[in-house]
Amino acid sequence: MTYSNSVLIGNWSEERLKNEYEFKLFLRKRDRRELLLQRSRTLFSNLLMERPLAISGTFVLFGFNVQVVASDMPAKSSPESGKPQYGLALSSLVSERQVDYMQNINDGCLMTLSPITTPCCRNTFVILSAADETLHGEKMNYGDEFLLRAENYGDPKAAPLYVRYTPEGTPAPADRMPIRLSAIKDSNCRWSTIPQLLCDRLEGIGSPVKTSAKLIVKNCVADKSLCVMNQSWMQTFFGPECGVTCRNYIDIHRRHTAENIFTLVSDVETKTKD
């Protein structure tokens, strides 16, 4: 089958106009910063912006930034070579499906445990007393109920977000991750700490929490311990990260295992020593 010159010219003109339209659409999206590459760069810039922790001394103080770090867990599910790195920081996550409409933390963001332990916007939280949020500089004791508030540095006027655990009403899959950021501040956002060793808990309740101490973080409503889902690793924008939930891992001696052991890092000196 042969085509006349007019048909060939018509196809060429149509293809040229299509390319011109797509190029203009690309320029318009670029000027509006709507390209996926630009959105991804904005996301990285907002969430990985370093936030130096204010030095608060030896003890955890209300009103200061803290990191919740699982210091005894390997940073990778299967270290390839060399000495494995330890430490997973509780972090907020924006998934690849949310990049088109979200370039910062928001209500409903999933919480994970990330090998990135450098203090940044996604893994630092302001620790507040559940009894009086205006307290600043007061020592936090074992047994005190507290809130973990995530700061949205990209939009200071945004509603405050809190780390919230949602208990399951019915039996749920083992890999369910129910800890998210929430704008609803209710009893599910309340957390408390107890000493790691069983023999220290009776005398330890009411004593100040040290920044370098290994401890157990419990949700006040579910009465379950914050734990590392070491078998649930996922690939994210920020690399492989581990799931986090509330579950008690106890051995035959009634001691919590490494999945439940965390530290509250609230000053640069302690972070450097670890």
Features of this protein?
Trefoil (Acidic Fibroblast Growth Factor, subunit A), twelve-stranded antiparallel sheet, disordered C terminus, 274 residues, 28% strand, Cilia- and flagella-associated protein 161, alpha+beta
Largest pleated sheet: 12 strands, antiparallel
CATH class annotation: Mainly Beta
End-to-end Cα distance, whole Å, is 76 Å
How many individual domains? 1
Q: How many DSSP-defined strands? A: 12
CATH topology: Trefoil (Acidic Fibroblast Growth Factor, subunit A)
Order of helices and strands: HHEEEEEEEEHEEEEH
Helical/strand content category: alpha+beta
The assigned CATH architecture is: Trefoil
Gyration radius from CA atoms, angstroms: 24 Å
Question: Helical segment tally?
Answer: 4
Shape call: elongated
Mean pLDDT: 82
Question: Approximately what portion of the residues adopt beta-strand conformation?
Answer: 25-35%
The multimeric state of the shown protein is: single chain
The helical percent reads: 10-25%
Low-confidence stretches: 269-274
Protein name: Cilia- and flagella-associated protein 161
Organism: Manduca sexta (Tobacco hawkmoth)
Pfam family, one: CFAP161
